[in-house]
Amino acid sequence: MAQVTATDGPDTIDVGVVANSRLTASIGAILLVALFVEGITVIDVNGMFALHAFVGMLLIPVAVLKLCSTGYRFWKYYTGDPAYRRKGPPHIILRVTAPVVVVSTIALLGTGAALLAVGPNNSDTWVTVHQASFIVWVSVTTIHVLGHIIETWRLTGDDLRSTSTAAVPRAGLRRGLLLISLVVGVGLGVASLGWNHDWANRRRDRRDGAGRGAVVVSTPTRVEVPLI
After folding, report:
1. How much is the average pLDDT of 126-153?
2. Does this model's pTM top 0.90?
3. Rounded distance between C-alpha atoms, residue 126 and residue 39, angstroms
4. Are 97 and 144 in contact (CB under 8 A)?
């Protein structure tokens, strides 16, 4: 069984384990950058709704790839694979919160896509679930980011160096998977520019009505635009 040492850990680790860790880390690095941009749009969702929706849709295939890579490690570890057992589990706090991260991520991105599909006139329940999942997601994801951020950038950097990549083969496959997820994500993001016209029209109508001196009435269950 092939093994590597060097910067991938204090002990000798199986190449497959390192490859999985590097793929997961690279996906995480992309997610961090995209989520940073998405976080900026949250400051003014109405003014940056198109970008907010675009990045939200772009995140979906990347997040799916992340769930697949981490799910693979989970499955290998708990089915007793020797290499993954030697690697060991994440910190207990990360293990306990991981299911909440998964569920809240699916809920957040799923309800965001649903909001674009149903439009603003049938969105009350979806908005409530979307905002609730966002609050939960931010809370638990912050813990995960802090727990993995150093490892994420280190492993991502390792996979970009040719000398390190030679020791862990199939770097092309890992990069190909990342590229495919990004291409699909960009495609969904571009498509969202056409799906969000109802939300855009609603914002324009409210803005025009307010400019004419009309009183804009909002109910406790009605929210201007979603947070994808």
Report:
1. 90
2. no
3. 20
4. yes
